[in-house]
Design a protein that fits this description.
The protein is α/β, with parallel strands linked by helices. 41% of the residues lie in helices and 19% in strands. Strands 1, 2, 4, 5, 7, 8, 9 and 10 form an 8-stranded mixed sheet that branches.
Length: 289
Amino acid sequence: MKTISLVLGSGGARGYAHIGVIEELEKNGYKIESISGSSMGALIGGLYACGKLQEYKEWVLSLDMLDIARLLDFSFLTSGIIQGDKVFNKIQEMIGEVNIEDLNIKYTAVATDLIKQKEVWIQKGNIIDAIRASVAIPTLFTPKKISNKYLIDGGVLNPLPMAPTVSDDTDITIAVNLNANNAKKYIIEIPKKEKEKENRFKEIFFELKQKAQSLFEQEQKSEFDEMNMFVIVGKTIDIMQNSVLECKMAGYSPDIMINIANDACDFYEFNRAYEMIELGRVIAKDSGI
């Protein structure tokens, strides 16, 4: 059994692919001893380190439109559209009160200090707070305050955090990049039930769009527009992270890189969980792990 350090990148809803990758790694006999993650990578990695990834997967695949609507706690602050408390209260129900230093797996959640403009490695303290800080996508989630620091999405400064794993005593390092420019296209068979669910969720995203427009005093429209604020923010984040990633990878490189295309889905399309999980599994197989 090969021991691995697993690096999980940021990329919004594409982060569901991490679940498929992890399942394929376990299927092939790898033992994950260390995890470093940014944003959704920190969330999925944290759930795995706590032994709750399967429960989380079952939960997200069971959500319907009404469940999503109940989880959205719109913020009345201009620092973010969603507070995120309802979602993270649910995740805390799964995980419980767990400190990072008590985990059996080495874990690092990477966030960004908004004021000091510095990368922050969270390797101790409450894991829910660490995850919440790392996933605070600018404009979407409100920042998380920890020890007088206002922390936002780790992907802003480090979308694929290799450095925390450099000193690990493991056999190999495997990284999952969610911002790749993949030329190869993969066809994922989606059950009819999941496809219908995806279409219904567009109504939820329309509501989010209206909220975003009201915060920024933009004209509201009465139909779902493909090039809305979330698409623009998502594409901007992808461009920024690709640029940052090139610089970061010049200093550190994994033994195996699993690349998920940045056009697999938009960062806000959390309704495509089934498809992204399966895509992660298929690409992991294709990577020769």
